[in-house]
Design a protein that fits this description.
Number of domains: 1
Order of helices and strands: HHEHEHEHHEEEHEEHHHEEEHHHEH
Distance between the termini: 30 Å
Radius of gyration: 18 Å
Helix content: 25-40%
Shape: globular
Structural class: alpha/beta
CATH class: Alpha Beta
Length: about 350
């Protein structure tokens, strides 16, 4: 199988962001939405590989999913790792500590020099959520740093207001995300009862965007959650950065409710990909396989608004036929074939 370069330096982006404070972000604000910040050859491809591992063991599932992708090493890289710490609730309400630990250890084994775990919680105080999740203790034990996005200064936020956006006055992203050598996501598999319909990798990016920027009273998250365009706006956040790797812990899933609680099923899967659109499409297919909400079940998967808008913005593959589910054992292959049937349904 063809190997993919895992992490690409983003020196061009860092150079822009380093001189662009929140209050003077014209250098970013006039870029059309969907235009990549830096040259990322191979990011937009005709096909996307999604590793698919049937498992009940998160640690081994993470290792196997990443091994199947045959990622290149990442010597000396400075990585920003975003989990799903929207709340403190048990997985799939938030990223399981076993998943986070296994991912950090694998990235370290690949040669990453510095790993920073950061997030902004939507349900509760982020620092309190991270404390309840033992994130700071894990950082000491596993050697990663932490950043609480909603404790950043105003100069640590970069304003983005691209033409064509459904955001009234744009949104703001953390400078540590934009200046990292690579961004890694760890998301969950679940529905979203507050307008998102489902929350996987695209929705997980909402935790990058500011609720408020110091010195600015505007509540960006109130706008998002009150808007009928919420799902389009979710996709548009993703147009402003490109993750190098996304891992989805679907050992358990919420097939209704969400994001913090709901009807739980043992979906027994770990997915990994560099393509957010492909990974979310497979996740939606898994939810449908187990039976889920009318909103998530309606229409073709690529007609779901989060996914359709992401495709419009050239954030990943354009249809289910372009997704390759890659497995490493017979049991995973049987499961993947069943999910693929759902994925391809009109």
């Amino acid at each position: 199988m063809e190997r993919r370069a895992f992490l690409r330096a983003t020196a061009g982006l860092a150079g822009v962001a380093a001189t662009t404070p929140f209050v003077d972000a014209a250098g970013l604000m006039d870029l059309p939405i969907g235009r990549p910040r830096v040259d990322l050859p191979g990011r937009l491809r005709d096909t996307a590989r999604v590793s698919f591992v049937k498992t009940r063991d998160r640690a081994s599932g993470v290792r196997r999913a990443l091994e199947i992708l045959e990622l290149d090493s990442a010597p000396g890289k400075d990585l920003l790792l975003k989990p799903n710490f929207n709340s403190h609730h048990d997985s799939p309400g938030s990223t399981h500590n076993d998943t986070l630990a296994a991912l950090v250890q694998h990235l370290r084994a690949m040669g990453a020099d510095r790993i920073t775990v950061g997030d902004r919680s939507g349900m509760g105080d982020t620092r309190s959520v991270m404390e309840r999740k033992s994130t700071f203790r894990m950082g000491d034990e596993l050697g990663f740093e932490t950043v609480v996005f909603d404790e950043l200064d105003d100069s640590d936020w970069v304003a983005v207001n691209p033409p064509g956006s459904h955001w009234r006055q744009g949104f703001a992203l953390p400078r540590p995300v934009l200046e990292a050598d690579g961004v890694v996501q760890a998301c969950c598999l679940k529905t979203h009862q507050f307008g998102g319909h489902f929350t996987m990798s695209l929705k997980n990016s909402v935790g990058f965007a500011a609720k408020r920027v110091p010195g600015d009273s505007y509540d960006y998250m109130k706008e998002l959650h009150r808007s009928s365009d919420q799902r389009l706006m979710i996709a548009e956040i993703n147009a402003e950065y490109a993750p190098d790797l996304v891992l989805l812990d679907g050992v358990e899933a919420f097939v209704d409710g969400g994001p913090h609680e709901g009807s739980r099923v043992d979906s027994e899967v770990v997915l990994a990909s560099s393509d957010r659109v492909a990974l979310d499409a497979v996740g939606v297919a898994i939810l449908r396989y187990f039976g889920t909400t009318p909103e998530v079940s309606r229409g073709a998967i690529f007609e779901q608004e989060q996914i359709a808008r992401a495709v419009e913005l050239d954030l990943g593959v354009g249809g289910p036929e372009a997704i390759e589910l890659v497995t490493g054992d017979a049991e995973s292959r049987v499961y993947a074939d069943r999910v693929r049937e759902v994925l391809l349904e009109a």
